[in-house]
Amino acid sequence: MPSPAFAGPLRLGVNIDHVATIRNARGGDYPDPLRAALMAEGAGADGITAHLREDRRHIRDGDIETLAAQLTVPLNFEMAATPEMQAIALRHRPHAVCIVPERREERTTEGGLDVAGDEARLADYIAPLREAGCRVSLFIGHEPRQIYSAARIGAAVVELHTGHYCDLHAEGRLAERDAELAALADGARHAHALGLEVHAGHGLSFDTVRPVAAFPEVVELNIGHFLISEAIFIGLPAAIARMRREMIDARKPGAP
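^ thats the sequence. predicted structure below, dont judge the formating
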């Protein structure tokens, strides 16, 4: 049985996808995602996340190669559950692979992976990744059946999708936001009780991070689009430093 949850240290993973989005808008070589990743590392990021999409709309294969070769913090490789992505992950053997749902027409990841509806295939899919030494994370919603399925197929980690909570906050739908936050908290507790490591991410900002950071079961937040956006105005190290302060303050005794 896992030990009781406690609000200990909380890691920050910085997603650098949208540095590549800006680069690709002009088709050149700058801004360089590796430079952003190394800057984030120097500013105190505990890890770097990069999502190699099937359509290569932001991160490219070469980015993964240079990140894997030059980072000194863990690389979290986000990917769809396809044979091509599995082969790339097995070639580079990043610290972690996070399996996400992916549709070509979506602007960003819209929901969690349906692990419960695809257990057998996903169990077979992640087995070689686990054998290669990659920590397998599944990006899912907070529904108990998805969490139970993730545990059954042998995932080490679940990352809870916080996007809906953030959308409700932005739309001012506060009662629904609070209900979604409570469901996320329940999901974190369920996952921890099953022995899964609990991460969370998607859409988090200075305005929304504290309630999620306060979940004692969560040990890592992965944040990207907001940090890269804020970096335009205050710089990436300053954006990371402030996010870190928000996360630390959320774990102080008596924090609101």
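Strands lie at 11-15, 47-51, 75-79, 96-99, 135-140, 157-161, 197-201, 218-223.
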